[in-house]
Amino acid sequence: MRKKLAILLAGTMIAAAALAGCRSESKGSAAQEDSGELKGDITFWHSFTQGPRLEVIQETADQFMKDNPGVKITIETFSWGDFYTKWTTGLASGNVPDMSTALPGHVVEMMDADALVSVDDLVDEIGRDKFSESALSEGEKEGTCYSLPLYSHAQVMWYRKDLLEEAGLSVPATWDEFAEAAKALTKGEVYGCSFPCGSSDLMGTRFLNFYVRSGGGSLLTEDLKADLTSDLAMDGIRYWLDIYKNCSPKDSVNYVVLDQANLFYQGKTAFDFNSGFQIGGVETNSPDLVDQIDCAPLPKIHADDPDYGAETSNIPMVVWRNSKYPEVCKAFMKKLYDKDTYIKFLEATPVGMLPSISGISDTQEYQENETVQKFSNAVGVITDAMEKGTAIGYEHGPSIQAGLLTSQGIIESMFQDIITNGTDVKEAAKAAENKLNELFDTVQ
After folding, report:
1. How far is the C-alpha of 414 from the C-alpha of 429, rounded, in Å?
2. Full strand arrangement of the beta sheet holding 269-274
């Protein structure tokens, strides 16, 4: 279970401020000799735990150290959940890395704790116009950029073409059609759609956000209060409870992201919601099913509703203020955006990781990838969703409240309470809403 940030926040902020006051930010002189040669030992935390991505990062680091003999890069990998716990508990003691990946919600909390250094110089070196303004804005505070996106993706609806065809069903365009199809395809060893709400992850929040965003709503009000008791949110809660009851394995009440994905990878669910990472997962676990999967936009409430994007993820990198060698970090980051290196990194999970900078997707080298060609429809669907969506809760701009919305497991616990204890839906929603707002009050 993750440590609750609100419990840690007061002490962490005080300690971070004290640390910031007694140290001076290195400008790179300690990292370079007069000759301009880079020198320094840095630690890089990232959450690319899958083999191919991890391997490309390590290969790039090895080459960077070969090119810069005075540099040593130590890489440590953590799941996203473990990373969140690691940095929030380590911030007060200074036990944080020199550089790391993060999630957009993490970055807002890191900026609020004054834990990062500006990467504006690096953004300008790479080319500010190559990044989308919305992606950069997720790590921006008072006009300064503290993160830069490494890759992007978005949540869309994945489905089994063969199962739909056998049942004589079309690809669902509305939530009603989705529920009808998911129920019809729940038979034998296949579930129509698993509904995950393990309290140590954000999956229940993610699924509820899909429904609420489809109706033009948000899980946060404009003044950044939790909003779980609106008519739209209540409809969404009841919708996913119905899916759980009729189409989902009962163990999914405790599922986290990988549990959920594995069902689709193994051919045990007809529908799932995810990014292009689904392709590699199916290819590894059930290669005979790769030709039977595709994706479509997220369902709407009404067929004539406008298209929307519910959740875009621009996965960023950051440089920590505690680092003695920020210029080494930035030089290594820049290396990751070199065209050949960058394309090789993206090809570690083709379609799962889409470029966060322009000038890549239209290159011959990128387009020659077999998976990119085969799943060109998925690339189009995901790209369109990326352009229309935001991180969860960022409809009103980046905020600590949005990060807490997804990091504390409160919405997931709400679903568990209803499912396991039979608590009244409205009562559980109000209790979760109050709990979130109490947390929000501690950081205002």
Report:
1. 7
2. 191-193, 269-274, 156-160, 293-296
In single-letter form, the type of residue at position 341 comes to: T
| DSSP annotation of 435 | H
Helix (H) or strand (E) holding 12: helix 5-22
Kindly state the DSSP code that residue 17 receives in the 8-state scheme. Answer: H
Chain-centroid distance, C-alpha 288: 28
* Contact predicate 78/45, CB 8 Å: yes
Residue among 349, 329, 346, 326 nearest 338 (CA): 346
* pLDDT per position as a tens digit, 332-354: 999 999 999 999 999 999 999 99
Task: Read off the pLDDT of residues 22-35 as tens digits, 9 standing for 90 and up.
Answer: 443 444 444 554 45
Mean of pLDDT values over 250-276 = 97
For 170-206, write each residue's pLDDT tens digit. 999 999 999 999 999 999 999 999 999 999 899 999 9
The 8-class DSSP code of residue 69 comes to T
Q: In whole angstroms, what is the distance from residue 128 CA to residue 141 CA?
A: 16
**Whole-structure pTM value:** 0.89
Per-residue b or e along 257-295, where b marks 16 or more CB atoms closer than 10 Å to that residue's CB: bebbbebbbebebbbbbbbbbbbbbbeeebeebeebbbb
Dist. CA 439–CA 408, nearest whole Å: 10
Q: Is 159 helix (H, G, I), strand (E, B) or coil?
A: strand
Element (H, E) at 95: none
